[in-house]
Amino acid sequence: MAWIYLFVAGLLEIGWAIGLKYTDGFTRIVPTTLTIASMVASVLLLGLALRELPVGTGYAVWTGIGTVGTAILGIALFGEPATAARLACIALIVSGIAGLKFLA
């Protein structure tokens, strides 16, 4: 169950990271409310996951999911560059997440 909590927490981290762009400096009420709710839920689920997982593994996987998802959505939603080097770096993060999952 801890890995499920961690995965959902990572997805929520992507949500609040992307949500920050839509808050317009926390001046728009709906995006701000959704972003803050995602932040709180993400950290709460991370905390639940860390009851069973090592903190180093849990935190690294949580931030890795958030990093990869945010980078991919940045490319898809905001036209950020999708260079070969950038995609290779994203692939390295994914391989690191997978390694931590299988070694934990």
UniProtKB/TrEMBL annotation:
Could you tell me the superkingdom of the organism this chain comes from? Bacteria
Q: Which UniProt keywords apply?
A: Cell membrane, Membrane, Transmembrane, Transmembrane helix, Transport
Entry membrane topology: Multi-pass membrane protein
Q: Does the keyword tRNA-binding apply?
A: no
> Localized where?
Cell membrane
Q: Which Pfam families match?
A: Multi_Drug_Res
Answer whether the UniProt record assigns the keyword Aminoacyl-tRNA synthetase to this protein: no
Q: Which GO terms describe its biological process?
A: xenobiotic detoxification by transmembrane export across the plasma membrane
The organism named in the record is Paradevosia tibetensis
Its GO CC terms are: plasma membrane
Gene3D superfamilies on file: 1.10.3730.20
Please name the gene that encodes this protein.
sugE
Gene Ontology molecular function: any one: transmembrane transporter activity
Question: What is this protein's record name?
Answer: Guanidinium exporter
- Family designation: Belongs to the drug/metabolite transporter (DMT) superfamily. Small multidrug resistance (SMR) (TC 2.A.7.1) family. Gdx/SugE subfamily.
